[in-house]
Design a protein that fits this description.
This protein has one helix spanning 31-68. It has 69 residues and is mainly α. It has a domain at 31-69. GO terms for molecular function: DNA-binding transcription factor activity. Residues 1-27 are annotated as: Disordered.
Length: 69
Amino acid sequence: MTFLRSDYSTSSPLQLPPFDYQPRPYNGPYADEVCRYSQRDTTGLSSENTELKLRLQVMEQQAKLRDSM
């Protein structure tokens, strides 16, 4: 299957038809601000994950001690 036709000229670039669309100005946060939020969230989640792993280890150790009695 071929999508190119021989009657199309490749010498001139394609042009968009005129249109009157004007995008609204961007009012959101800047990229560096988004990165800071993301890093802060990642750091917080990492700390929480470490804490939960330690709690789980303690619970597993307590269960082993109970089972051995």
